[in-house]
Design a protein that fits this description.
The protein is elongated and about 65 Å long. The protein has a domain of 37 residues. It has three helices and no strands. The protein is 46% helix and 0% strand.
Length: 78
């Protein structure tokens, strides 16, 4: 296992120490778990297309030129 040295603000260090004592694990275990959680959540971030995929095709049956044909924009913004 690789060893790292990091610098933490004293307030964060105290919080990590308290949480480690409460959970009865070492600070190293706690930090490894936090980094693992962060890494796994980043790997599962959705792209914009994935987030809006439920809305794709909602406008079925509308004119294909809805946003470019000026007659469809008549009264828009009033």
């Amino acid at each position: 296992m690789e060893s790292w040295t990091i610098k933490l603000p004293s307030s964060l260090s105290a919080r990590v120490t308290r949480l480690a004592k409460r959970r009865r694990v070492s600070r190293s275990v706690l930090v490894r778990e936090a980094l693992e959680l962060l890494a796994s959540s980043e790997a599962h971030e959705e792209t914009f297309v994935e987030r809006v995929s439920q809305y794709v095709g909602v406008g079925v049956g509308l004119p294909a030129d809805l946003s470019t044909n000026k007659k469809h924009l008549k009264g828009y913004g009033k």
